[in-house]
Design brief:
Number of strands: 9
Strand content: 5-15%
Oligomer: single chain
Order of helices and strands: HHHHEEEHHHHHEEEHEHHHEE
Structural class: alpha+beta
Radius of gyration: 24 Å
Number of domains: 3
Helix content: 40-55%
């Protein structure tokens, strides 16, 4: 969930976003600054004049405070020593972002930071806290994968005495758990919601993909321009492999051909891919489309 800003119309939106401090100056001073030109000035205006009302989190705070003590008492039966693992729980309400995000400490005792969207409930806080104190150990010591670790947390929140404690402040029916929410029946709903949001921003999700027509690479209904022969060949290779990872060795073969053994360099490949990303960004094609798979290669997000 994101605020409605001109992500598409403002060139290099995220880079410009990082350069701004919207609390630095008052809105009425905006137009007096000559250095705030073009996209940065427009972005600043949007951020200032689209300020949202302060989040009212009192209801959530009261509900969590009411069950916090019995919740941790019972959680201690499932996670021995949990109270010694956690120094503080810092809950930060937000209007945007994922439903709930949090840190996963590797060393305890530790502070747990929970960023919870204002439409979520104490079930999400509980899920975040349990995950934060169990995820690292489950993966490292039990060799669990993400889904197995998440299923454990969903079971604790939904099917143990913890569920009845949490239900004192909130209906248990309102919480489905992460695994259930991301199963195939839910993915269609998530995709439709994403497509609706894209359209609000002026993006047509059905057409903004890469395709190849002869010796031309298209993005949606427009041609990708200003790329070299090697950049064309690498981008074509990524498109043809769809969402599969194209290995560093394969990228090297495209770039260096028969000279790969003499010229192959991870540094030069990384610099080449960054230049290609920059050229796509200059054409308002998000550089995130080319994703790095660390230690393996690159993949193209094209769906």
């Amino acid at each position: 969930m994101l605020p409605r800003l001109a992500y598409v119309n403002i060139h290099r939106f995220w880079q410009e976003m990082l350069k701004l401090d919207i609390d630095q100056e008052e809105p009425e001073c905006l137009v007096s600054h000559d250095w705030l030109i073009g996209p940065r000035q427009e972005l600043r205006k949007q951020l200032i004049y689209k300020r949202y009302p302060t989040i009212n989190y009192q209801k959530l705070k009261v509900e969590w405070s009411a069950i916090e003590r019995p919740f941790f008492k019972e959680l201690g039966h499932f996670v021995p020593g949990v109270n010694k693992k956690i120094r503080n729980i810092i809950i930060i309400p937000t209007r945007f972002g994922t439903s709930c995000s949090f840190n996963v400490p590797k060393i305890f005792p530790a502070d747990i930071y929970v960023f919870i969207r204002d439409d979520q409930t104490i079930f999400s806080i509980a899920e975040a806290v349990i995950t934060a104190v169990t995820r690292f150990e489950a993966i490292k010591n039990l060799k669990a994968n993400w889904e197995e670790s998440e299923l454990l947390v969903d079971w604790l929140v939904n099917k143990t005495i913890l569920a009845s404690i949490l239900a004192r402040g909130q209906s248990a029916e309102a919480f489905h758990g992460t695994i259930r929410a991301t199963r195939s029946l839910q993915l269609g709903h998530l995709r439709r919601a994403s497509e609706a949001f894209y359209r609000e921003l002026g993006i047509n999700p059905a057409t903004n993909n890469f395709s190849i027509t002869g010796e031309v690479i298209n993005y949606g209904d427009r041609k990708v321009k200003n790329i070299t022969k090697k950049e064309f060949d690498v981008l074509k290779t990524l498109i043809e492999n769809k969402s599969d990872v194209v290995s560093l060795q394969e990228i090297g073969k495209v770039l260096y051909q028969e000279q790969i053994s003499e010229k192959f360099s991870l540094w030069s490949i990384a610099k080449f891919m960054q230049r290609l990303r920059d050229k796509l960004e200059d054409q308002d094609i998000g550089s995130f489309r080319i994703q790095t798979v660390y230690g393996q290669g690159f993949t193209l997000k094209n769906d």
